[in-house]
Amino acid sequence: MRLLIAPDKFAGTLTAVQAAEAIAEGWARQAPGDALDLAPMSDGGPGFVGVLNATLGGELLAGTVTGPVAAAPEVPSTLLVSDGTAYVESAQACGVHLTGGRDAEHASSYGVGELLAQALVAGARRIVVGLGGSGTNDGGAGLLAALGATADVPLDRGVAGLEDLRSVDVAAARERLAGVELVAASDVDSPLTGLFGATKTFGPQKGIPEAELPRWDAALERLAAATDRRMSLEPGAGAAGGLGFALMLLGAARVPGIELVARVTDLAARARRADVVVTGEGAFDFSSRAGKVPAGVAAVAAEALRPCVALAGQVLVGSREMRALGMDSAYSLVDAVGEERAFADPAGALADLAQRVARTWSG
Fold it and tell me: How deeply is 195 buried, as exposed, middle or buried, from its count of CB atoms within 10 A (0-12, 13-18, 19+)?
């Protein structure tokens, strides 16, 4: 039997590469004769560069960039260069893991702009920026500043620094990226501002108090008014605290992250060669529908007329909802081995779950 293993990360416990390896290890125990094809996935968030490096190879360039908050003034970074394209993971420079889910009002995306600058120095003629998992909410103002944009207020002080903003000049940043194809890879289709914008949708999970949301949404409105209000309403402008908007101002095209990774990894052809497709993530719930890895992998499996099975830390939907998300079956790690072991030994626990699932699906 031929198995395609295409999970996302299990947030906080396993990278997508580690998850794929754990599933393969457990499956092989039960069905050692099965052919296993490992294709770790990402939607553009944390782990984006590692997933693509596992498939593309290429050159990994290590460096440091400015962190999002004073508590993380300088953070390590790695970008991947392959065939003239640089792949950048914004979470490395401004991820919520760096802010601790606090102080999003002052957190800056300046380091993401520095990552783009490093890609330019490396000679990239195409830059793909994976968006997701950010701890910032500055509309990408910091990114713009790092690339040369200027304003009547500092742009590297987070959204709090934009309250008195009146004018912004992004010409220097655009000139710096002239002739470079820019791509924003994201699963988020929110606009920059408003009821479904970056602040009101994602601000609370970054630590912005509910009472402060209108204030900081208004600050992003000032950024939109000073640059391009119409573009601020585009789907994806609100991705990663508004990094999507900044990249669009610089000419970026937006693509769903899972679709980009699936295309780069040739997932459709690999699914056609498989008998069963296995995916997974930390929590399989209704948010999995909105451009997340399991839904994207399930769509590829359905196109190939192959069954798709999900292994997840937790399964928080019923059988009807599961099938609506494109899954034939879904299995919970916590239900199988208990919460304590799931967190204490995530790789071993996931391998054990995969071994159990193989008893049903192999052969």
Answer: exposed
Q: Tell me the C-alpha distance between 68 and 115, whole Å.
A: 13
Q: Tell me the per-residue pLDDT of 256-312, one tens digit each, with 9 for 90 and over.
A: 999 999 999 999 999 999 999 999 999 887 665 666 899 999 999 999 999 999 999
Of the pLDDT bands very low, low, confident and very high (cuts 50, 70, 90), residue 331 is very high
User: Which residues on adjacent β-strands are paired with residue 279?
Assistant: 310
CATH classification number, 48-258, choose in 3.30.200.20, 3.90.1510.10, 2.40.70.10, 3.30.1240.10: 3.90.1510.10
| Listed residue (171, 169, 142) closest to 155, CA to CA | 142
At 261, the amino acid letter reads: V
Whether the Cβ atoms of residue 22 and residue 293 lie closer than 8 Å to each other: no
Query: CA distances (Å), 56 to each of 168, 261, 293, 320, in order?
Result: 38, 11, 19, 37
- At residue 356 the predicted structure's pLDDT band, cuts being 50, 70 and 90, is very high
Q: Name the CATH superfamily, with its identifier, for domain 2-41+266-361.
A: Glycerate kinase; domain 1 (3.40.50.10350)
Reference 245, options 119, 109, 363, 126; nearest CA is 109
Q: What is the pLDDT of residues 230-272, one digit of tens each?
A: 999 999 999 999 999 999 999 999 999 999 999 999 999 999 9
Calculate the average pLDDT of the chain: 94
Q: Residues 6 or more apart from 277 whose CB is under 8 A from it? A: 3, 4, 6, 271, 297, 298, 300, 301, 304, 306, 307, 308, 309
For residue 316, how many C-alpha atoms fall within 13 Å in the half-sphere facing its CB? 11
Please give the Cα distance from 45 to 95 (Å, whole number): 9
